[in-house]
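FW: tagging you since you asked about this chain on Friday. Here's the raw sequence from the shared folder, copied in full. Didn't touch anything.
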Amino acid sequence: MGTKLFIKYMVSLRCKLLVKEELKKIGLRYVVLELGVIELLEDITIDQRIQLKKNLSTSGLELMESKKSILIEKIRNVIIEMIHYTDELPKVNYSDYLSEKVGYNYTYLANIFSEVKGITIQQFIIIHKIEKVKELLIYDELNLTEISHQLHYSSVAHLSNQFKKITGLTPTFYKQLKEKRKQNLEDL
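HL: got it, structure written out here
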């Protein structure tokens, strides 16, 4: 089997397509391509690695070298995918879910993450959950009770408190601001 490559900032479908394009240009064949991880069918030469690194960086992506960076990126990608790209959050504790997905003890992951990112995994998860709440509020398909249920909050009050702590606004006020902005744009 070839080499595993880890790519930083690869968090969307557009990034995925971009990476596929770059791999084709260099003539590298791959088997697995998930967010942030590529498995090549053959070994990559030093020249190919340099070329790929250069091409990716022009698109804001980064080929990672250090084990710590790779681990942090894996954690980030698991959290982002879990919150933004799956219909339902896992029923198990996030710590168990992350340990299982990344293949390391949670305490070890939490220590490395805090050391490198300057925030805890828990804080990172909360920030992304609130981003998801904002998104769901704007789409206007679910009410707050449904959103709190979907994102595994114990209550609407808990969600609202966390939302206010992160954004400085209540979910209701945030939604009203968005609606006002939309009406103002329509009136132009």
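FW: The longest strand covers residues 4-8.
HL: agreed, and The chain has nine helices and four strands.
FW: great, closing this out.
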